[in-house]
Specification:
It contains eight helices and no strands. The radius of gyration is 19 Å and the shape is elongated. The mean pLDDT is 77.
Length: 171
Amino acid sequence: VWCPLKVKILSITQYATYPQNYDTSLKNCSNPTEKCPKTFENVFFVISGYLITSNIINELDTNTFSLKKFYERRARRILPALFFVILCCLPFAWLWMWPAQFKDFSQTIFAVGVFASNILFSYKHGYFSETAVDEKPFLHTWSLGVEEQYYMLFPLALMLLWRFGRNRVLY
């Protein structure tokens, strides 16, 4: 059952058991196409994916799943904190950034708002460079973009697959 999830859990367990075998520094991650370990994000994605998938399957099983309720729960959980962080950063960015920096910052806020910051950052040079952390205050939202893009499509796919029968989807 859920073989890809098991593979991911096993690989994370491997890292947790033998961390000395992995280079977790950012020194080799200046190019987003390079293979860079994102261990903590992987752990989060596995746990989040498992919990949300379990909830969706339980609701599909009891015929209580609603896309509207699912997206509403996601919005209530994520948007208040996201908007709070944006509102806290905005005055400081306006005071401390040069016009070109503020323009980039504004583009980032828009991308964050539509959960596409990972796409925006992937087009920028030095996505994971060491200076990017100082220059891109919302760099941490790339994982939120990936997660939300996934959860925009995954429930739809699971609903379609569910119609073919539970045994065919899960086993």
